[in-house]
Specification:
Number of strands: 8
Strand content: 15-25%
Structural class: alpha+beta
Largest sheet: 8 strands, antiparallel
CATH topology: NADH Oxidase
Number of domains: 1
Number of helices: 6
CATH class: Alpha Beta
CATH superfamily: NADH Oxidase
Low-confidence stretches: 1-6
Mean pLDDT: 95
Length: 206
């Protein structure tokens, strides 16, 4: 295992597709939870599109694809990635305004996530495990304790975006909310002010 210093490895992702070509109604009809994935990685374009769908900047002012109470954007995305020809295996932090990722630690940590997720072995098959974390203070400072509810709502928006985007790309997903918070936080190297909220496993369905 090799840990990067100050997340010094940054990778620009391919520009997201903002047009698509599949009717929303077909995407909604096709969304199902998938727990059986092919033994292959996501392409760089697929990885970038999924991350953009969750929290990408969607206009020049920096507003994002998922709504946020007060546009305070408390969510942070962490990608546990299987190795591909374009992106090496590791844990990455998504940078919405750059549409890029920064490498936090090298290695394939899908098995460690499965252990933290109450031994849900199927999660190891995913090409991408996306962990949604939150800095609650960003929202609570304006809305008080009610802000914690707003953060949960926002995380739901982000994950639904991922699930629908995945259908449009021919990918499968399942959200995973059952995990040990402390174990996941350690695994993805969360700063002290962040907490894991939920996660979603993404891959090519069998």
């Amino acid at each position: 295992m090799v840990t990067t210093k100050d997340a010094e490895v940054r990778i620009a992702l391919p520009e997201p597709d903002r047009e698509g070509g599949i009717p929303l109604e077909r995407v909604l009809s096709g969304r199902r939870s998938v727990r059986d994935f092919k033994d292959c990685a996501l392409s760089g374009a697929e990885l970038g599109q999924v991350l953009w769908a969750a929290q990408g900047a969607s206009n020049p002012a920096g507003l994002r694809t998922a709504p946020s109470a007060g546009a305070l954007y408390p969510l942070e995305l962490y990608a546990i990635v299987r190795a591909s020809s374009e992106v090496e295996a590791g844990i990455y932090h998504y940078l919405p305004h750059r549409h890029g990722i920064e490498l936090l630690v090298k290695g394939d940590f899908r098995a460690e996530f499965a252990a933290a997720a109450l031994m849900q072995e199927w999660t190891k098959q995913g090409s991408l495990i996306l962990v949604v974390a939150a800095v609650y203070s960003r929202t609570v400072v304006k809305y008080g304790e009610r802000g914690r509810r707003y953060v949960a709502i926002e995380a739901g928006h982000a994950v639904q975006n991922v699930c629908l985007q995945a259908v449009a790309l021919g990918l499968g997903t399942t959200e995973v909310g059952a995990f040990h918070d402390e174990a996941v936080a350690r695994l993805i190297r969360l700063p002290a002010d962040q907490e894991p909220v939920t996660s979603v496993v993404v891959g090519h369905p069998v």
